[in-house]
Amino acid sequence: xxxxxxxxxxxxxxxxxxxxxxxxxxxxxxxxxxxxxxxxxxxxxxxxxxxxxxxxxxxxxxxxxxxxxxxxxxxxxxxxxxxxxxxxxxxxxxxxxxxxxxxxxxxxxxxxxxxxxxxxxxxxxxxxxxxxxxxxxxxxxxxxxxxxxxxxxxxxxxxxxxxxxxxxxxxxxxxxxxxxxxxxxxxxxxxxxxxxxxxxxxxxxxxxxxxxxxxxxxx
Amino acid sequence: xxxxxxxxxxxxxxxxxxxxxxxxxxxxxxxxxxxxxxxxxxxxxxxxxxxxxxxxxxxxxxxxxxxxxxxxxxxxxxxxxxxxxxxxxxxxxxxxxxxxxxxxxxxxxxxxxxxxxxxxxxxxxxxxxxxxxxxxxxxxxxxxxxxxxxxxxxxxxxxxxxxxxxxxxxxxxxxxxxxxxxxxxxxxxxxxxxxxxxxxxxxxxxxxxxxxxxxxxxx
DNA sequence: CGGAGAACTCAACAAGCGTAGAATTCAGCA
DNA sequence: TGCTGAATTCTACGCTTGTTGAGTTCTCCG
Lengths: 219, 219
Fold this sequence. Notes:
Two copies of one chain form a homodimer.
Chain A: H1 21-40, H2 43-50, H3 54-61, H4 64-72, H5 78-85, H6 93-104, H7 108-121, H8 125-144, H9 149-172, H10 183-199
Helix pairs in contact in A: 1-2, 1-4, 1-7, 2-3, 5-8, 6-10, 7-8, 8-9, 9-10
Chain A binds a DNA duplex through helix 3.
């Protein structure tokens, strides 16, 4: 039994030809983080999807956390994408942003990155930090050009409220009919909201901004 | 060494007096599910918070999943809460709903239930099912009284987009300044959005509702 | 052609998980 | 008083996880 024939034995050691496994691992990681979140995704599962031994993942990326950072940082540079949205002019800002975001989510890589970041950020503080930076970099820089300095951050986080809520309901929770609605219908429905958050009257009772504590998540 | 003195030994068996541990376990479970999500919360951790052996949790609730269901189903009956919101009249519907929801989230138990459901639903399909039912029961029943039958579900899921997005940004991701804003400021800013989703003109291009596939999560 | 280092796998570790079964102590009813 | 059953803990099984170290095979440069 167990003849160590050349064709049958599992091959250890380096493969011939140029290697693309590094990128394959990243793609598998993006998919699994998007589907299962940070804690739910396993290095063993990612390695299996990439057709590779789990130890190789460590060889390339060190720890699970560094793999996550590498996987989430790849394809999108949101400020560039949204930056071009500014050219449409102040009055069509909401429409352009919603359309741009939905278009971005039409690309599998970008969708996986966004969902992965969102799924992970909900239970992992480190990922939440990344998402906060993402929101701040992408939205705030766009808003700052149109809102007065004092309101800019408040307006930006209101926009985040609607955009992240849209992604959550449409792609993560998949609540119908929003989950299956066309991009154009969603643009028509949601763009006015974003437009008002950016340039409209928010009627804030600007007395004392009464602070109230929020929940503290995992360390 | 190790004298089995009466005062020193760990006590097994039933305690004297009437027991409140059953409820203590539920409270600990709510808090842990809210902080860590479904997979992240551990029965051992919940038991420790309740000052109890992990096996007792199983004795009472069977499996982790049934514990989750029990913990998430307790305090809120959302249709009752929102039902009273209807009395304010059609024109103030958005304001009343946003104010009611924010008031609800001022109660620790209700906040924990909502956050727990949200955190769990993002990575757990069973919890997502519960949250969908929650949204459908709470929001749709409210909307149906004011929107024509054809649009009601679409309007309800748009409202879910904004309300869940608000909860996500304010309590889970804690993106500033929304995380620390006063309830009243948020009502002033967000109520018009909800009002428009409920009773306003959504300008939907009602051609063919072009279906596009959404991501498939974990089984 | 030879050596260095990169790519890759194997096997194993310590830890943590959900869960199960048996043992012990108490409450309440006959 | 005695018995049944509920409340409670102990111990342990089997599994999965992230991570590590050693060993093997290839590529590439001198």
